[in-house]
TrEMBL record:
This is Cytochrome c domain-containing protein. It comes from the Bacteria. GO terms for molecular function: electron transfer activity; heme binding; metal ion binding. Residues 15-91, 103-199 form the Cytochrome c domain. It holds the Pfam family Cytochrome_CBB3. InterPro entries: Cyt_c-like_dom, Cyt_c-like_dom_sf, Cytochrome_c550/c551-like, DUF302, TT1751-like_sf. It comes from Candidatus Thioglobus autotrophicus. PANTHER family: CYTOCHROME C-553-LIKE (PTHR37823). Keywords: Electron transport, Heme, Iron, Metal-binding, Signal, Transport. Residues 1-18 form the signal peptide.
Amino acid sequence: MKSKKLLIILFLPWLSFAGGQEIYSENCEKCHGFSQQGSLGLPLYRSTVANHSDGYLKKTIEYGRPGRIMPGFKLSNAQTVKLIRFLRAGVKAPQYSKEPIVGDVEAGKYTYEQYCQRCHGKQLQGGEGTGKNFSWQKDRDVSPPALANQGFLHAAEDQMIKHIIMKGIKDTEMMSFEKEFNFTDQMANDLVVYIRSHQQSSVFSDTPKAVEDEEPLVFVYQSQHDLATTVDKLKDSAAAYNFRVYPSRTLFEGLGGPEGADQKQIVVRFCNFKNMQKFLKLDPRLGVILPCRATVVENNQGEVHIYLENYVHAIKRFNNEQISIDAKDLIDSMKEMVEEAVW
């Protein structure tokens, strides 16, 4: 009987987050890493999670970080509980009062500019990049979070923000401001109130604001030529723009045998190695989404169109101004390349 009780005691920690690892592997591992070490997403170190309340983690999972790489997840309550238990791995959840902190916004702004702006940005937009920094030209290992992000502000309690300011987070670059800079309670309160002033509404909404000049997800060009001629002209144009052209493929080629290929949808593949090297130096993860193809399609009416994906939308998620500028230049040159091919 004693041995059975001992086994139960030994396995209680494992039983408390059983099932959470599977949920993590399915939904989180791709960005946060197999061992929560971080990648596209921020590291989920035990020492980091130890500072976060269950409510904060639950809302972060649900809301994500609008405009950043972190999406919201529609998990059931039971799944969310299991996932949080897995992330905690037996570490007790902190309890924070939900009472809002009172302070001076202007004093908090001054404190922010003096102590926080260098890492978290002038507009509280966070550091460049996302998650772990894999750039060859990096000044820190982890991108500082965006404190003005509405997902963060709707998830975080004032007291949790204050606790992290004062005590810091172990094993990260977030130091204890109480210890390093002799922060007083009032300084921390003012800073929290300033951060909170960026919350736009009392109810969370992840609906993006309409942008009048927002570019489309895909650029579509109608060709004046037949399918084969359009493909040839697109290859010639790509070569003229210093892209190395690779053998074209029909859409779905290799999937389900010859009958699976669509002979009226041709993928023209190309690459500029100089551009590729420039992007990979900024962030090696860009290799999975670098612009490298356009699709030529003949519809049932015999009209031929070229479809060019607008990679700028995907690039924005990397939260790096230089990458966005370079990507815009590259896409503009690709648009010119396609425009020459359709005439």
